[in-house]
Amino acid sequence: MTTTNATQRRRHQTGPPLGVLAVVFAGLFIASLVLGTLLAGGKPYPSPFGPAADILAYFRDHQRAVQVSGALQFAAAIPLAIYTATASARLHQLGVRAPGATIALIGGTLSAGFLALCGLLGWVTSQPEVLDDPALVRGLQYLTFATGGVGHVVPLGLLIAGVAVPGLLARLLPRWLAWSGLIIAAVAEIATLSLLIDNAAILLPIARFTGLAWLITAGIRLPRQRPPRAENVGN
After folding, report:
1. Fewer CB in 10 Å around end: N or C, the chain?
2. Are 116 and 74 in contact (CB under 8 A)?
3. CB of 165 within 8 A of CB of 104?
4. Structural domains of the chain, count
5. Among positive and negative, which fits the CA dihedral 73, 89, 92, 109?
6. Which residues have CB under 8 Å from 227's CB, separation 6+?
7. Average pLDDT, the chain
8. Residue 191: which domain range?
9. For residues 174-185, b (16+ Cβ closer than 10 Å) or e, as one string?
10. Using CA atoms, how far apart are residues 16 and 20, in angstroms rounded to an integer?
11. How confident is the model at residue 14 (pLDDT cuts 50, 70, 90)?
12. Domain-located, residue 227
């Protein structure tokens, strides 16, 4: 009887639904882009590699759009952090004992932290006192790009890989889903080159948006209970 009760308690301690958390995270992040663009009259957020005059004009003319976008990105970091903690705990409960679950935890925590910082930096950039200093605006935009781009996406790849590898080896996820996660994670890591090569920045949205879809799908498909034939695995 005691063993049965303990098993039932473990089944109930699997945390919030991963799929729902991923949908909330993705929804808030996409809303930050869409609403920011709409409030700016259809003008997209400027690239840090564009002309300085155009960048400064955008921030001065669309302060509200920048504030809303930054606030939503900060908000999106919260469900991502919860997803990370829940996924790591779920993997441990499913028998993953080697570094996979820890890699997911570290990667997701860094990714959420950098996204939150990106949102806060965007909010700071929208303040009137800051906009009086063109050099400061440009510097803050570079920081926003670094934290919300490479800083967020590269660790997001670690989160995906940390779930995908044990998901493949322990048969916790379908093979196609696990392998696609590894490909997305590889693209995310290669996106580090965008710090050195401007054209490599195209990898950031590729890894970001395919990663959002993957986290939703994996969150839905990752089981709450250990499959009968799964074994302890390492990553």
Report:
1. N
2. yes
3. no
4. 1
5. positive
6. 170, 171, 172
7. 89
8. 15-221
9. eeebbebbbebb
10. 8
11. low
12. no
Residue 229 maps to a domain: no
Nearest partner of 227 among 113, 99, 93, judged by Cα: 93
How many whole angstroms from its chain centre is CA 30?
A: 12
**For 54-61, what is the mean pLDDT?**
89
Confidence of residue 79 (pLDDT cuts 50, 70, 90): very high
Is 226 among the domain residues? Answer: no
- Half-sphere exposure for 176 (CA within 13 Å, toward CB): 2
Q: What angle do CA 182, 145, 35 make, to 5 degrees?
A: 95
Return the structure tokens found at 93. 């409960």
pLDDT at 190: 97
Residue 1 lies in a domain: no
Give which of 220, 217, 177, 216 is closest to 22, Cα–Cα: 216
